[in-house]
Amino acid sequence: MRFLSLDLVRSKRLVEAENLQRKILHNLELSKGWDSLDTTMAAETLSVTLQTIGELKESEELLERCLAVRRKILSENHFEVAGILVHLARLTLLKIISDIKVSNDLSRSHLVKAKQLVSDSIRITEGILNPLRENQKKLKSTIGIEREKIGATAVLLQALEVVGLLEATRKRKQEPGLVLLLRLPLEHLKHGYFKIDAVRVSHTYRLFIWPDKHLIGVRNTTLRIHLKNNFEKSDYEHAEQALRKCISLYNEPYTRNVVSKYLRQQYERCLRSLMHIIQHDPDILNAPGMHDLLGESQRIMKELDEEKNTK
């Protein structure tokens, strides 16, 4: 029944898929209860379908419940926990995109939440792909190691794609720069110069720190200041950094082999998405070395196509 529901999703028969997935979840709730990985898998599948049809609140409730159960049964650092974090990050972005009435303050809080969710997911998956020696001993078999790393690679690719979407969403929601018009007291003209340490704008929580320590010459009693929005940089925050990580995964022999055998479609989707976002963002596209990075991405895509055609 689960595979039938996925076929219905692929065929865009979403109402039928939702009904069947609800039936599957209900049967598992009755037979196994919620403290079951099978039940969380069914709930996760239904949640993704609900996201597709715009039922974001119920989708989030199911994902939060799945997250709690998986943390309890598995561990905080399991790749299946990381997978739920990625779904929650994507859903948080959908909240912003789907509701044009979302205020700027709420949009910022959603972006911060999505960033934290995807950062946690990346931390977990990278910890699995690059384990410390003591953590390696906890895995009981080579099969266990292989399954963990394949799952972690798949989730990491999803997370990197969400990073790109996060960057694009943030740019769309970014407020235009402010223009402040300051009227200066006449006594400033006696000295001919002054210094601004900070500017507080009324009716907002913002405090703008003046970026230059030099004194400002005054010839008039009015000063026009143009201020742009800036965001802090952090690991994987930008699509460029996500693209670099995606390329490095392919250049790593082990993960390249995993991609070729099991995750070709997921890898191509991630790479294409990041390339598209960068190519449509002049700020990133014109960054030093970016054209070389895109050239490397296109080379990988061509190589994957040729490999696919020879099989």
Short overview:
With about 300 residues, the protein is mostly helical. The chain has 14 helices and six strands.
Query: What's the alpha carbon Rg, rounded to whole Å?
Result: 24 Å
The arrangement of helices and strands along the chain is: HHHHHHHHEHEEEEEHHHHH
Q: Helix count, per DSSP?
A: 14
Q: Give me the count of strands.
A: 6
List the helices and strands and how they pair.
Elements: H1 2-10, H2 14-31, H3 37-52, H4 56-73, H5 79-98, H6 104-129, H7 133-136, H8 142-173, E1 178-183, H9 188-191, E2 193-194, E3 198-200, E4 207-209, E5 216-217, E6 222-227, H10 239-251, H11 253-261, H12 264-279, H13 282-285, H14 290-309
Antiparallel strand pairs: 1-6, 2-5, 3-4
Describe the model.
This protein has 311 residues and is mainly alpha-helical. The longest helix has 32 residues. The chain has 14 helices and six strands. The protein is globular. The strands form three sheets. A two-stranded antiparallel sheet has the order 1-6. Strand 3 and strand 4 form a beta hairpin.
Fill in the keyword field for this structure.
311 residues; two-stranded antiparallel sheet; single chain; 14 helices; mainly alpha
